[in-house]
């Protein structure tokens, strides 16, 4: 922890739009056959239904639940979206409080 002009400061990750991150995560999952197959099996929806499901905030929260519950996937999604893993977790937290 660095010291700022008024004492210790914490390094923070900037907040990102939770819906944007959820769509990024869904896009990443859908474009990777191994991830898509498992996600679709767990969610119970078909590949052709993803676009319509993405309009549902509850479904997007489910996408984020899936991502943050799988650390290797979380790291891949964060890298693909160009954000820190903590930003993805923070986006999930904000979505879950809606």
Written account of the structure:
With 98 residues, the chain is mainly alpha-helical. It has one domain (15-96). Helices cover 64% and strands 4% of the residues. It has helices at residues 18-30, 33-43, 50-53, 57-68, 71-81, 85-96; strands spanning 3-4, 7-8. It has a two-stranded antiparallel sheet with strand order 1-2. A hairpin with a 2-residue loop joins β1 (3-4) and β2 (7-8). α1 crosses α5 and α4 packs across α6. The longest helix is centred in the N-terminal third of the chain and has 13 residues, at 18-30. The chain is globular, with a radius of gyration of 15 Å. The protein starts with a strand and ends with a helix. The model is unreliable at 1-10 (pLDDT under 50).
Summarize it.
The chain is mainly α and 98 residues long. Helices cover 64% and strands 4% of the residues.
Tally of distinct domains: 1
Largest sheet: 2 strands, antiparallel
Query: N- to C-terminal separation?
Result: 31 Å
Query: Secondary-structure element sequence?
Result: EEHHHHHH
Q: How much strand content do the residues show? A: under 5%
**Contiguous helical run count:** 6
Protein name: DUF3572 family protein
InterPro entries: DUF3572
Organism: Lichenibacterium minor
């Amino acid at each position: 922890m660095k010291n700022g002009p008024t004492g210790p400061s914490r390094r923070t990750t900037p907040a990102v739009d939770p819906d944007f991150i959820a769509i990024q995560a869904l896009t990443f999952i859908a474009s990777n056959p191994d991830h898509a197959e498992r996600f679709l099996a767990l969610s119970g929806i078909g590949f052709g239904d993803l676009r319509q499901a993405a309009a549902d905030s509850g479904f997007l929260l489910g996408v984020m639940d899936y991502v943050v519950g799988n650390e290797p996937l979380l790291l891949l999604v964060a890298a693909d979206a160009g954000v820190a893993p903590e930003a993805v977790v923070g986006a999930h937290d904000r979505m879950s409080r809606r």
